[in-house]
Design goal:
Layout lengths: L4 E6 L3 H12 L4 E7 L2 H11 L3 E5 L7 H11 L4 E7 L3 H10 L3 E5 L3 H24 L2 H4 L12 E6 L7 H14 L5 E5 L7 H4 L29 E2 L5 E3 L13 H14 L2 E5 L6 H9 L2 E6 L3 H16 L7 E6 L9 H8 L5 E3 L3 H10 L3 H4 L4 H15 L11 H5 L7
Parallel strand pairs: 1-2, 1-3, 3-4, 4-5, 6-10, 6-11, 7-9, 7-10, 11-12, 12-13
Antiparallel strand pairs: 8-9
Helix pairs in contact: 2-3, 3-4, 7-15, 9-10
The structure holds adenosine-5'-triphosphate and magnesium ion (MG).
Amino acid sequence: MPDQIRVLIVDDIPETRDHLTKLLGFESDIDVVGAAASGAEAIELAVKLAPDVVLMDINMPDMDGITATEQMAARAPTAAVVMMSVQGEADYLRRSMLAGAREFLVKPFSSDELTTSLRQVHLREREKLTRMVARPVASMNGSGPEGAREPGQIIALFSPKGGVGRTTIAVNLAVAAAAELGKKVVLVDASFQFGDVGVLLNLNPKNKSIADLGPELEQGEPESLDTFVINHSSGIRVLLAPPSPEMAELVTTSGVKRILDALRRQHDLVIVDCTSWFNDTTLAILDMADVILTMLSLEITSIKNMRLFLEVADQLGYEQGKVRLVLNRADSTLGIRVQDVEHSIGRKVDHTIVSDGRSVVYALNRGVPFFLSNREAQVSQDVMRLASAIAGEPVVAPVVEEPKTAQRKSLFAWR
Ligand SMILES: Nc1ncnc2c1ncn2[C@@H]1O[C@H](COP(=O)(O)OP(=O)(O)OP(=O)(O)O)[C@@H](O)[C@H]1O
Ligand SMILES: [Mg+2]
């Protein structure tokens, strides 16, 4: 039957394999197509049987579940892995997710938890495949016949005030667009003095960064910058900020422009995490961007600065559709409502993202984007909506309620 979920069970303990097979035997929509006793056998069977989902134990003697998952991603890419582990192994969660596992079940789990996970993972994978099939091949693999491809979009995350969640959203947006929309994504940390992208993705600070590009920035072949872009296990590519603030001076505006131009030719999306102050480089990035996701929070300083930024954006001649407003932590109960914000800045908020300190901080401290470790959370769903809006459909200009000049006079009128 086409709707059956084909499951491969991987566990080195025979009793566990039997138990899981029996448990899943009661489900009419799930077929256990095979059982493997080791990581190596799992890969072999996954290639042969093409299961939809692989239920993988993490601790196995020859090859552990994480290594098997990594190798499976290359050899049986359509098989989605659900990892199983015992409690108290938080580091395993991080490593599993980074290896490409879609879910993580902590033993002992109930039969309900197991079947719900399998069904959710299967559904998500199917939706993802449908979206990928619907897209032209050229944009899916990042290059057309002779490497010819449409230049990708540059998405700048900017906020005229710091600490509103630019980096958090940039990282998760990049992962969502790659994992769920099948886009070829590169994330550029343009917070050249105090970049946080590497921390959120648990990348070693000894990795190459934009500062290593040196003379290449000015005159080298832009293609050579490929060696400075890191392949992250979540499927995105990353160009890190320099490891220490004084090295930011090595990064020139003309160099950044060349880099973005080159990256745009190789990727569907170039997501740039900008700083919150205007300088030549930030302005150059904003100029080049196809979309500026301008982030704000429900705080009076953030709203005031947003108003000023919108005036600057007007003076710079940025059209309405280019600047999109993203309200982060939109449900914080701080006494300011979304309507108040819209009234004050004179335009609609285009996207909202809920506040979810638990998921966000938990993910931050583990170095795994929350979009991977807690896909069901509302905050992940909000990020997914944002990703679909900017990458999955044409950008539509936001609705403006009244002429802006009239509304801008009313700043703080709601206070
Ligand atoms: N939706 C959210 N819910 C809860 N906490 C959030 C959310 N978004 C961001 N945060 C938290 O807000 C803080 C600031 O986030 P982040 O570092 O991403 O902001 P930023 O704009 O990049 O800051 P900076 O100006 O330092 O670069 C972090 O502690 C982050 O965990
Ligand atoms: Mg930041």
